[in-house]
């Protein structure tokens, strides 16, 4: 009986690996389509993780005119996927008893800052993480000196000035509204509570415990050498972004290899001291107003095709990203792109084959460069 069980388990793993190989072949074709045929993106790396291990594929180039293909250790800006890291820190602080989800954010800001409230209610940390605070997507005093790097000169003084004079236009908690301002404020408040910078807080509480050695905001020279060149929709170089005081909304840079460590820990495929915090993130959810879409702490959750998909995407001036997983099947996907071109469909299709990810029309007269397709 024991040998029979081993045989059945081995057969199941073999079939799973075979199906994964077929899925990866299709994903390779999609990456090649986006980069070499349709020429919508300069370079893309995708990584998949499940109980059988990790698989990677990549296509395109790390820089305009370059011959080097991106790989598992190429560094990309991940944009708003940073919000999941910010909310993980929040959840970890709650689990440790350092703060409460219903704490007003004003509790952690300088006393001179007047945070707007309404109807006798204050904006809480949970409101910010669930994106129901009533704060707008962006502050009205965001007036970039450099449109190519729009947040670089938006520091604490400007954030505090906005909060102190803004009047909420609807009740707190009434409805979901995606807000870079709100989650950036959350990151700033948590960093003040931790008594350190946002980057240092995330490094100590998330990156080090998960062994994510290639994820940072300020890159050391070794990571700068692996940083892809971001490009605009015309595939011309774009500036890297500095999120300044709103770092918690989108400042992190990472690799496909590191991001799979994050997803594997989130799904419970690897042991982590953040297990309870990851669980809390998904426990605190509410509807967004879009059918089949909820918001949790830092994650969005689609309920489609009979399964739950936990995900977040990201974008900066020259990068796009997607990270998602299915808790029930313990399968995760990350897609990183060094062009301002959406990759959500690639990630969602890799998780759920029914999700549409059509081939794009090839550029007329363009000859594909197969040498730029790499698989890991």
Keywords, please?
single chain; 376 residues; alpha+beta; Beta-lactamase; nine-stranded antiparallel beta sheet; two-stranded antiparallel ribbon; 10 helices; disordered N terminus; disordered C terminus
Side-by-side strand order of the widest sheet: 5-6-7-8-9-10-1-2-11
Radius of gyration: 21 Å
Q: In the CATH scheme, what's the topology name?
A: Beta-lactamase
The major pleated sheet works out as: 9 strands, antiparallel
Q: In the CATH classification, which architecture applies?
A: 3-Layer(aba) Sandwich
How would you describe the oligomerization state of the chains in this entry?
single chain
Quick one: overall form?
globular
Structural class by sheet pairing and helices: alpha+beta
| Count of separate DSSP helical elements | 10
Strand content: 5-15%
How many individual domains?
1
CATH superfamily: DD-peptidase/beta-lactamase superfamily
Low-confidence parts lasting 5 or more residues at pLDDT below 50? 1-19, 367-376
Whole-number mean pLDDT: 92
For the record, what CATH class applies? Alpha Beta
Question: How many β-strand stretches?
Answer: 11
| Helix and strand element order | HEEEHHHHHHEHHEEEEEEHE
- End-to-end C-alpha gap: 37 Å
Q: Helix share of residues? A: 25-40%
Question: Can you describe what's shown?
Answer:
The protein is of the alpha+beta class and 376 residues long. It has one domain (24-375): Beta-lactamase. It is 33% helix and 15% strand. The protein has helices at residues 2-37, 82-95, 125-129, 156-165, 180-194, 198-207, 221-224, 256-267, 275-283, 344-351, and strands at 43-50, 53-60, 76-77, 253-254, 286-287, 293-295, 300-304, 307-315, 320-326, 331-337, 373-375. A 9-stranded antiparallel β-sheet has the order 5-6-7-8-9-10-1-2-11, sandwiched between helices. α2 (82-95) packs across α5 (180-194) and α2 crosses α9 (275-283). The two termini are 37 Å apart. Residues 1-19 and 367-376 have low confidence and may be disordered.
């Amino acid at each position: 009986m024991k040998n029979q069980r081993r045989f059945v388990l081995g057969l199941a793993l073999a079939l799973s690996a075979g199906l994964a190989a077929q899925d990866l072949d299709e994903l390779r074709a999609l990456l090649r389509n986006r980069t070499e045929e349709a020429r919508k993106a300069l370079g893309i790396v995708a990584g998949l993780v499940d109980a059988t291990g990790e698989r990677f594929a990549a296509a395109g180039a790390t820089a305009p005119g370059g011959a080097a293909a991106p790989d598992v250790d190429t560094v990309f800006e991940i944009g708003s996927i940073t919000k999941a890291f910010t909310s993980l820190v929040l959840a970890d602080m709650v689990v440790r008893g350092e703060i409460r989800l219903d704490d007003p954010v004003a509790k952690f800001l300088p006393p001179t800052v007047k945070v707007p409230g309404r109807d006798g209610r204050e904006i809480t940390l949970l409101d910010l993480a669930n994106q129901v605070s009533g704060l707008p997507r962006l502050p009205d005093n965001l007036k970039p000196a450099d449109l190519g790097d729009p947040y670089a000169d938006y520091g604490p003084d400007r954030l505090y000035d906005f909060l102190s004079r803004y009047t909420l236009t609807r009740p707190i908690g009434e409805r979901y509204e995606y807000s870079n301002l709100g989650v950036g404020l959350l990151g700033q408040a948590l960093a003040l509570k931790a008594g350190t910078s946002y980057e240092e807080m995330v490094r100590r509480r998330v990156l080090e415990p998960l062994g994510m050695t290639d994820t940072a905001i300020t890159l050391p020279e070794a990571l700068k050498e692996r940083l892809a060149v971001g490009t605009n929709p015309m595939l011309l170089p774009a500036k890297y972004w500095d999120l300044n005081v709103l770092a918690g909304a989108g400042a992190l840079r990472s690799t496909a290899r590191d991001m799979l460590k994050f997803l594997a820990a989130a799904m419970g495929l690897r042991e982590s001291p953040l297990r309870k915090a990851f669980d809390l993130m998904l426990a605190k959810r509410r509807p967004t107003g879009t059918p089949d879409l909820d918001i949790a702490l830092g994650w969005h959750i689609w309920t489609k095709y009979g399964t739950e998909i936990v995900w977040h995407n990201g974008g900066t001036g020259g990068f796009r990203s997607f990270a998602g997983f299915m808790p029930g099947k313990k399968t995760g996907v990350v897609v990183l792109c060094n062009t301002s071109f959406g990759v959500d469909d690639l990630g969602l299709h890799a998780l759920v084959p029914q999700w549409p990810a059509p081939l794009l029309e090839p550029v007329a007269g363009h000859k594909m460069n197969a040498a730029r397709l790499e698989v890991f």
